[in-house]
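In response to reviewer comment 3 from the previous cycle, which asked for concrete evidence that the modeling workflow produces usable outputs, we include below a single protein chain processed end to end. The sequence was submitted unchanged, and the resulting structure tokens are shown without manual editing.
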Amino acid sequence: MPVQKTNAARLLDAAGIKYELVPYEVDEEHLDAGHVAEQLGEDLDRVFKTLVLRGDKTGFFVCVIPGSLEVDLKVAARISGNKNCEMIHVKELLPTTGYIRGGCSPIGMKKPFPTFIHESALLYESIYISAGIRGLQICIEPQTLIDFVGAGIYPL
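The workflow returned the following structure tokens.
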């Protein structure tokens, strides 16, 4: 069965960037990175989740972190130039980014938001990020992703 190309994949294609689309079985009850890593047979630290936050000064920004970690709001605020920040509510995700929970990609959001990728991504030849829909991951070289989305490294 052919894998559906997502907007994120089309953007990578248009830029001539090498990546691989990797499907996995979706479980609506378990949309977390742990389930994705288990389905892919990969280390949880190689499966990155895309989190959207709102800062008190800069507005929306994105943190891409390993599935094994929780976002440190103090660090996230500092690296994004805010005093405080919070995760956006799940109801805000689709109107803000164009993506749903469990299918949010750092590539191809409705608007480009400042993006910060956890430094541990650079420990791997490739990492997994959402392709923009549930059930599909993009396997990509981390520095290529960082360059493509213009991301900062987190934490600094």
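The domain at 17-154 is CATH 3.90.960.10 (YbaK protein). We consider this sufficient to address the reviewer's concern, and the full set will be provided in the supplementary archive.
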